[in-house]
Design a protein that fits this description.
Layout (H helix, E strand, L loop, with lengths): L1 H15 L1 H15 L9 H20 L9 H23 L6 H6 L5 H28 L11 H25 L2 H15 L16 H4 L2 H13 L7 H25 L3 H4 L1
Helix pairs in contact: 2-6, 3-4, 3-6, 4-6, 4-7, 4-8, 4-10, 6-7, 7-10, 7-11, 10-11
Length: about 270
């Protein structure tokens, strides 16, 4: 009961500091490409070039199957959510370190720094969706109302991303090796997630890996509702939802427990 009361108190604090949250998110968005010529166009250009290169390599050279749709369509549905996930983790890893002056001078819930980073990356993600819309129109790929399932799937991904970001940011403050280890883990994780290939092309005896990987369930869910035009596997999504919410709760408790020591390590 005490933990529930504390949780409501922290939620009220977050609402109280909502203006700071959105200001930090705006600063993150505004400053990233401030000195560049093309500015925010890089949000679209970066994933576009990544898509074109990966599409050429895996559709032309390795000839990966793609559910009877152009490979670039198959790829984009997995790659854009993955980029949002990994960019959120990478930026969150240094969110506390790079805001040392704020942490040592004024009080506010420190998780706001992580949430602001994720909001900024979510804005990038929504802009990058324009690429998907363009290719869907170009290849005349139709969708139906099942695409509305994208909303709850994205919320599940958001909980998982936020939970992992909270843990990574707090531990990176104490052990700076985390940010370098994270880059290695992301590279391995990428190939163990069905982004550039369908699940069916993975050796059957190793497919249990996907059931242990929340991002596999999430990306398969996106493909089922967008390309398949049907509801996702509800059992898998329910497990992913429960896991993501519980994981976020545990990560939040760990973060708040360590919060009092942040000022000593920045």
């Amino acid at each position: 009961m005490e933990k529930i009361k504390k949780g409501f108190k922290n939620l009220k604090l977050l609402i109280f500091y909502r203006e700071l949250l959105f200001n930090l998110a705006y600063r993150e968005i505004n400053q990233r490409y401030k000195q560049s010529i093309l500015g925010y166009a890089w949000v679209i250009l970066n994933p576009l070039f990544q898509l074109l290169v990966l599409s050429f390599v895996f559709s032309t050279i390795f000839r990966v199957s793609s559910y009877n749709v152009p490979y670039i369509i198959f790829l984009i549905i997995g790659l854009l959510p993955w980029n949002f996930f990994t960019q959120s983790l990478s930026s969150s890893a240094n969110a506390l370190v790079s805001n040392a002056s704020l942490i040592t001078k004024i009080y506010f819930p420190r998780e706001i720094l992580i949430y602001a980073t994720i909001i900024a990356k979510a804005v990038d993600f929504f802009y990058s969706v324009l690429i998907a819309i363009f290719f869907f129109i170009f290849y005349k790929i139709s969708v139906n109302l099942a695409i509305l399932w994208v909303i709850p799937i994205f919320i599940i991904q958001l909980f998982f991303t936020a939970g992992l970001s909270l843990i990574i940011s707090s531990f990176n403050l104490f052990y700076r090796d985390i940010q370098y280890l994270l880059n290695l883990i992301i590279q391995i994780w990428f190939y163990l997630t069905p982004i550039i290939y369908p699940v069916e092309q993975f050796p059957e005896k190793y497919r249990f890996i996907f059931s242990l990987n929340p991002m596999s369930v999430i990306i398969n869910g996106y493909r089922q509702v967008i390309l398949g035009g049907k509801a996702p596997n509800l059992n898998s999504m329910m497990v992913a939802a429960v896991f993501s919410i519980v994981f976020f709760g545990i990560a939040y408790l760990i973060f708040k427990k360590q919060e009092g020591e942040f000022a000593d390590y920045v």
